[in-house]
Every structure is written in structure tokens, then in C-alpha cells.
Amino acid sequence: MTWLFNTAVHEAQNMTGAVVKEFAFSDDEVYLKKLGYSIGTTIGEGSYAKVKSAYSDKLQKRVAMKIIDRRSAPKDFKEKFLPRELKCMKAINHINCIKLFEIIEFEQKVYIVMEHAGHGDLLEYIKLRGAIPEDRSRVMYRQLTDAVSYLHGINIAHRDLKCENLLLDYQNNLKVSDFGFSRYFEDPGISKTFCGSAAYAAPEILQGIPYYIPLHDIWAMGVILYIMVCASMPYDDSNVKKMIRDQLEKKVTFSKSKPISNEVKDLITRILEVNVKKRYTIAQMVVHPWMNPDAPPLAADEGTTT
């Protein structure tokens, strides 16, 4: 049943003759209003959820509200992925991860009230401005490595890192968001599950080879860094089989029309390493010369790859 203010959306005249518009409100909106939330426009939409902006009377600021309708979601999502997402979000507390404020359940819907990042996502930022200068990319990438290092430190893998899931606040600080595919992992932390976007997935994941769960995030971080400094994808994902071949043949190419430093090329190449035993870890990323311009250059046996 739907709550209606004066039954329906229609126009009526008041005593002065002016036209007054009357709007219908759903049960959900009435319930959320009682809890101090005023729902605004839709700012994102996925397979089983919408994200709307809202204003919180309690917090006295705008928030983002992810609305999940259990009725339209498949059983696997409801029984496995949603509980994992909620469990992970409750545990996460880092300046570069979207903060959870509250989880509300009403009838068949789940409302996840989160921090609102006002400058959209990283992909929108790059589409609008083009490749990000390396000095600025370095700041953003440090924020990403801090966030992912924190997540892995508490045994959480994100598993859907991509530019669309990296939000920017009003000062363009990076915030990791959308923990819909996140999960806890324990040693040995091996999985065969493919989730997320193929464009950001490592070759072993795309091939269905069992992999160490945190490596799902590592490869994606290399793709993200490439996109930040090149404003393009490192591999063409329109043909996944060909993309896997290119990955396995180590075909990471850089456009000559968008000159970038040898140091960032080297870092990207070391992250997008097919051999998982040689692939850079986050600990290695943060001490790389590109991340630390004032540090000594690479040793002779670690020459720059271009």
C-alpha cells in the first residue's frame, strides 16, 4: 500500500486561486522521513540497487543512500554477496574509503547510508579533464594504495576496483566505494571466482585459474594507474580472448602522443606482470621511485621498462 498526501499527484487550487502541486510519497519515503532522511535524486544505478542523494537531519549534511530491493535480487546475491558487503562495510574505517553511517532495513528493502562524495567518480574526472598530470596522479594513487593496503591489512579484498568505484570528495580526495563484491579472506586465501569488470581483471582470473584473492585488487590498481596517466585503457576489452593473449604476451604499450615518465611506465609494467610471483605488491609500489621522486634511482638490475 502507498501512503498518499491528498491521495494522488494532481493540481488543486487554494483559497487565493493559486495552483498547488500535491505529490505522492511512498511508504519508504515516509518511513525514511521519520528517521530524518530526505531523499533526493538518483546518482547511480546498478543491477540490483540504486544510489540516491539524501539529506540527513541527524548528521546535518548530504549523504549517499544505496537502496537494495531484495525482491528483484537473485538468491545468490541475497544470500552471499549482500551479507558480505554489509559485514565488510561495518568493519571499514579509513579516510580513503567511503564511510558507512547506518544500515536500515524496511520491508523488503535495505538502505545503506554512506558518506557522499560530491565530485563524482574518477572516470568522470578523466573524461572531463583528460590524462591526470603525474604530480596529481601520484597524490591520488598514494591515497588508493593507502586504502587498499588498509583493506588487505584487515583481510578484506575489494574485488571490483575500477575508476567508476573510486569517488572524489569536494577536495578531490580519492575514496574507494562499492563493496558489493568484497569479501574477507584467510590464508591461503585462494579463489577461482571471477567478479567485477573484465577490463580490470588479471589474466589468471579471466582464465579461471585459482588465484590469491588480494591479487584481484593488485592488477586492477595497475590498470587504474595506466588510465590515470594515459586517459585510455591498457588493453582492449572488446575481445576478452584477445585481451588475455595480449596480457600473457606482456603487450603493455604507451602512446607516444601522451608522453609520460619512464618511472611511471616502469611501475605500471611491474604491476601488470603476468607472473604472479614477480608482480609488484603494495609494499613494493609505495617505495618505487615514481611514488617517491626524491628517493635514489632504481638499482642497475631493476632497469626501467618502457
What layout of secondary structure does this protein have?
Elements: E1 10-13, E2 19-22, H1 27-34, E3 37-45, E4 49-56, E5 61-69, H2 75-91, E6 100-106, E7 109-115, H3 122-129, H4 134-153, E8 156-157, E9 166-168, E10 174-176, E11 183-184, E12 190-191, H5 203-206, E13 211-212, H6 215-230, H7 240-248, H8 262-271, H9 282-286
Antiparallel strand pairs: 1-2, 3-4, 4-5, 5-7, 6-7, 8-11, 9-10, 12-13
Helix pairs in contact: 4-6, 6-8
Explained architecture:
The chain is α+β, with helices and mostly antiparallel strands and 306 residues long. The chain folds into two domains: 35-115, Phosphorylase Kinase, domain 1 (2-Layer Sandwich); 122-302, Transferase(Phosphotransferase), domain 1 (Orthogonal Bundle). It has nine helices and 13 strands. A five-stranded antiparallel β-sheet has the order 3-4-5-7-6, sandwiched between helices. It has a two-stranded antiparallel sheet with strand order 1-2. Strand 6 and strand 7 (109-115) form a beta hairpin. Helix 6 (215-230) runs antiparallel to helix 8.
Descriptive tags:
9 helices, alpha+beta, disordered C terminus, 2 domains, 13 strands, disordered N terminus, five-stranded antiparallel beta sheet, two-stranded antiparallel sheet, 306 residues, Phosphorylase Kinase, domain 1, Transferase(Phosphotransferase), domain 1
As a percent range, the share of helical residues equals: 25-40%
Uncertain regions: pLDDT < 50 for 5+ in a row? 1-13, 19-24, 300-306
| Beta strand % | 15-25%
Alpha carbon gyration radius = 23 Å
| Overall number of strands | 13
Q: What global shape is seen?
A: globular
Number of helices: 9
| Structural class estimated from helices and strands | alpha+beta
Order of helices and strands: EEHEEEHEEHHEEEEEHEHHHH
Fourth-level CATH superfamily of the largest domain: Transferase(Phosphotransferase) domain 1
Number of folding domains? Answer: 2
Largest sheet: 5 strands, antiparallel
Average pLDDT, all residues: 88
CATH architecture of the largest domain: Orthogonal Bundle
Distance between the termini: 63 Å
Question: In the CATH hierarchy, what is the class of the largest domain?
Answer: Mainly Alpha
- Please name the CATH topology of the largest domain: Transferase(Phosphotransferase), domain 1
Keywords: ATP-binding, Developmental protein, Differentiation, Kinase, Magnesium, Metal-binding, Nucleotide-binding, Phosphoprotein, Serine/threonine-protein kinase, Spermatogenesis, Transferase, Ubl conjugation
Organism: Candidula unifasciata
Domain Protein kinase: 37-291
GO molecular function, one term: ATP binding
